[in-house]
Structures are given as structure tokens and as C-alpha cells.
Amino acid sequence: MKPEDLRTVLVKHDAWLKDEDGGERADLQDADLRSAGLLGADLSRANLSFAELQHADLHGTNLRRADLSHTDLRGADLRNVNLYEADLLGADLHVADLQHADLQGADLRGANLSHANLRLADLSHADLRDADLRHADLQGANLDFAQLNLSCKGLDFEIDERIAKQIAYHLVNLMKYSGLEIPEDIESFANKSHLVTEHDQVKLKG
């Protein structure tokens, strides 16, 4: 997209957000925005579905409730971005930098978050069902009320002690409620999972 065309879209979108005459919601569906200057822009509620934003600098951009479904955000700088309740269904966020991003209530179903940096991101109430979290870094992230998946895509990502205790509490609570014995050797217990015996996942080793 030409810079002058993008500026026009942003001006009209700003007017639309303010309910001013001549305002128009930004429709950037399928747009090539890889070299666009969107740093700090207000694109809340904009349509960016299927857009190309690989390695784009979106640091501090407001994308609150924006439609980013199936958008290519590989390697994008999304630090401190407001993605509150954004639609990121099927988005590609491979190796994206999402440190301190606000992802509260975001729809991340089927999103590719492999190798993404989500340190200190707020993922509370986010929907991460079928999201690929392999090798992502979620240390310090807020996962309260988030929906995680139990597929293989939900393995091999980094967490901190707080999240580990949170997950452990849920595990122990469910086992106690179900009358199951709490094992002393949790690693050996986990290695008896059908993920290992039936789906060829590698056994956990200390």
C-alpha cells in the first residue's frame, strides 16, 4: 500500500473512532503493510484480516478489538501493543515480540505463537485453544482465566514458577476432588500418560 493511501485511511479511521463527519472504518484486509509506518497508530476496531505485516514495527500500536484474523505477523514487533479482545484467529505470530502486550480476552484460537516472546504479556481471559505455543516464552505472563489446549501444540514452552504453581494447583485440586492419589514422583507419573504410550511423545527426564 502506498504511504499516502495509508495516511488517508488512518485519518478517516481516526475520524470514525471519534464519530466525526467523513469518518470511515479502516479496511486493510489483504493489504501489504510490511514496510508501513504504523508505529503508535490507533487502529482499534480496524479490519486487518489476512494483511501482510511480517517484521512490521507495531510497537505501542493500539489494536484494541481489531480484526487480525489470519494476519501474517511473523517476526513483528508487538511490544506494549494493545490487543485487548482482538481477533487473532489463525494469525501467524511465529517469532513475534509480544513482550508486555495486552492480550486480555484476545481470540488466539489456532494462532501460531511458536518461538514468540510473550514475557510479561497479559493473556488473562484469552482463548488459546489449538494455538501453537511450542518454544514460546511465557515467563511472567498472566494466564488467569485463559483457555489453554491439551494438544501437543501446548507443550514445550517456557513458564515461570508462578505459572507452574498455578498449573500444579489445578492438577492437585482435580486429583483430590476425583479421589486420586497424589504421586510422589510426578515425572514418572506423567510419563505414563497416553501422550507417551500412544502418541510417541518423548519421556520426560530430569
Annotated CATH topology of the largest domain = Pectate Lyase C-like
Helix content: 10-25%
C-alpha Rg, in Å?
20 Å
Query: In angstroms, what separates the terminal alpha carbons?
Result: 52 Å
Describe the main β-sheet briefly: none
Secondary structural class: mainly alpha
Uncertain segments of ≥5 residues (pLDDT<50)? none
Proportion of strand residues: under 5%
- What's the order of the H and E elements? HHHH
Descriptive notes:
The chain is mostly helical. The protein has 2 domains: 27-159, Pectate Lyase C-like (3 Solenoid); 160-206, no CATH class. 20% of the residues lie in helices and 0% in strands. It has 4 helices and no strands. It has helices at 3-17, 161-177, 186-190, 194-197. The longest helix is centred in the last third of the chain and has 17 residues, at 161-177. It is elongated. The termini are far apart. The mean pLDDT is 95.
